[in-house]
Amino acid sequence: MRDAGGCRAPQAGSLGPLKGRFWAAAAAKEQSYEYGSARYLLLCGLGGMLSCGLTHTAVVPLDLVKCRMQVDPTKYKGIVSGFGVTVRDDGLRGLARGWAPTFLGYSLQGLFKFGLYEVFKMRYAELLGPEKAYRWRTGLYLAASAGAEFFADVALAPMEAVKVRIQTQPGFAGTLRAAAPRMYREEGPRAFYKGVAPLWLRPIPYTMMKFACFERTVEALYEHVVPKPQSQCTKAEQLAVTFVAGYIAGVFCAVVSHPADSVVSVLNKEKGSSALGVLQRLGFAGVWKGLFARIIMIGTLTALQWFIYDSVKVYFKLPRPPVAQAPKSPKKQK
């Protein structure tokens, strides 16, 4: 994955099985873990857990209002009024409803999302070879992130269902300990996984945009905006580039994934409903309700996630190589 600087990969020939990779090398002195090793991937997963778990929990109040705008637009007509109605009905504590399933669910999602993205990206690059991997790198980012998110959503689905039920169904339950057992008693295991298929429709396009747009935005920022080469930038400056690229990617992510997000919110609230039925009932205008709130939330969220993830890699001195560079052809090398 790309750090603040870009595509992450070792110098060709420096790590055995990763010979010929199209990414350039990071400085060997700074690396405390070999790129692609089990420890490296586990620490990437840890960074993903922290980045997703902490950020999603931090924006629970905004997420709560957004979900309520989607499932009850007549009562929650806008962001500001939605906050006012929530505080009036439930008090300030009501804004934190659903924080526990949010933290647990998105921590698990982050573990698989970031960890598996690194795995899939490395394997796909090896299969393609250095020249094709560089030339088709956008497709490589899209394929790797889609595969990672597929498994991440299976881990997220149970806690997402509990969170939405707590936030959008008044009187159902106020805590994870109360909501999860009741859902299991009333609906069985299906209660936790009935939203996984529409859930794939939301985060998979979101994650594909999140990773591919971020990777290419970092390249563009270093090429056209940052006034000095990446190798001359401090870690703080590289993390600033990460934050900006993450926010830009987040705006696109919000737009791409919002219709499916609306469907999932309604689906998890209503017993016995289907994704197609909810989609038909909401209509074209209905699926875009709450988009502005989602843009604010996801833009900030995505920027912070990349910032935290890269900060974890800095802390553990994981490989942080430069942006993607075209490999030298055999003819040029001769």
TrEMBL record:
UniProt protein name: Solute carrier family 25 member 3
Principal place of residence: mitochondrion
Reactions it catalyzes: phosphate(in) + H(+)(in) = phosphate(out) + H(+)(out)
Location relative to the cell: Mitochondrion inner membrane
Keywords of the record: Membrane, Mitochondrion, Mitochondrion inner membrane, Repeat, Transmembrane, Transmembrane helix, Transport
Subunit details: Interacts with PPIF; the interaction is impaired by CsA.
Family statement: Belongs to the mitochondrial carrier (TC 2.A.29) family.
Keyword hit for Manganese: no
UniProt superkingdom: Eukaryota
Function: Inorganic ion transporter that transports phosphate or copper ions across the mitochondrial inner membrane into the matrix compartment. Mediates proton-coupled symport of phosphate ions necessary for mitochondrial oxidative phosphorylation of ADP to ATP. Transports copper ions probably in the form of anionic copper(I) complexes to maintain mitochondrial matrix copper pool and to supply copper for cytochrome C oxidase complex assembly. May also play a role in regulation of the mitochondrial permeability transition pore (mPTP).
Source organism per UniProt: Felis catus
InterPro entries according to UniProt: MCP_dom_sf (IPR023395), MCP_transmembrane (IPR018108), SLC25A3/Pic2/Mir1-like (IPR044677)
TM helices/strands, residue ranges: 40-60, 291-309
Membrane topology recorded in Swiss-Prot or TrEMBL: Multi-pass membrane protein
Solcar repeat intervals: 39-123, 136-220, 237-315
